[in-house]
Write a structure and sequence with these properties.
By secondary structure, the chain is an alpha+beta fold. Helices cover 29% and strands 28% of the residues. The protein has five helices and nine strands. It has a five-stranded mixed beta sheet with strand order 1-2-3-5-4. α1 packs across α3. The longest helix is centred in the last third of the chain and has 26 residues.
Length: 244
């Protein structure tokens, strides 16, 4: 990895993440909630439970976990129109990413015919809103599932693992971890990694925005991304005591 040429936000190294905070129980009425902060990016994640499943899943004996994602109008430096159903394709793509990432680590049969929806609302954006959302959504989901266990509606927690996400990229020919907006907007290569606590990959999204990238760069990007995932799942474990 090349040495840093330009200072990064928070005076961090190329392979260092922004300060990350996961604050639980920030909403009174949600079954589980988390304010996830990656530097200046802040996402409010709220999980709610319905004692039913979509019509197409009824009678299956399995539950469903899904997500919704939106950026609030004042989350960026220029007001964005409020989002409604049938709205931006980007938001739909991100909420599908969050939903399938969460389902990967849930035993849906053990959940029973219930639906858990995790709403991820970006209240302030400075790059990495989807990765912040996935990471915070897992915490909100964990707490929602724990509420079912505490209410004796489930005999055990139907979580089979943890999931977190982080961004990587090539900016000014440097491999960087956890890009903020200034870096992301100038990235030659932009990549997002969704992974689990055991090092497995759920999803890898990578694009040569300005130039193609080679196998060596891909390996370096994955290396720093995996280190970032390890840091995030460690923090998740610390705030939830999952697996302890």
């Amino acid at each position: 990895m090349q040495q840093d040429k330009q200072p990064r936000s928070y005076d961090r190294a190329a392979d260092q993440m922004r300060p990350v905070t996961l604050t639980r129980k920030v909403l009174k009425h949600a079954a589980g909630s988390c304010l996830a902060e990656f530097g200046d990016t802040r996402v409010l994640c709220a999980a709610t439970i319905e004692e039913s499943v979509p019509r197409w899943r009824k009678g299956s004996g399995e539950g469903w976990v899904t997500a919704e994602y939106a950026m609030l109008p004042a989350s960026t430096n220029k007001r964005s129109p409020r989002e409604y159903r049938g709205r931006k394709g980007r938001s739909m793509e991100i909420e599908r990413l969050i939903g399938r990432s969460l389902r990967t680590v849930v035993d849906l049969r053990a959940l029973g015919e219930r639906t858990i929806t995790v709403d991820c609302d970006v209240i302030q954006a400075d790059g990495g809103t989807r990765t912040t959302s996935v990471t915070g959504a897992w915490v909100a989901l964990h707490d929602a599932l724990m509420s079912l266990v505490r209410a004796d509606k489930l005999p055990r927690l139907p979580l089979v693992g943890q999931v977190a996400a982080v961004s990587m990229g090539v900016v000014g020919d440097r491999i960087l971890l956890d890009l903020d907006y200034a870096e992301d907007s100038h990235a030659q290569v932009d990549m997002n990694l969704v992974g689990t606590a055991d090092g497995s990959i759920i999803e890898l999204q990578g694009t040569g925005e300005k130039t193609p990238f080679n196998r060596q760069q891909l390996d370096e990007l994955l290396c720093v991304g995996e280190a970032g995932i390890a840091q995030l799942v460690s923090l998740q474990r610390k705030v939830t005591n999952f697996g302890v």
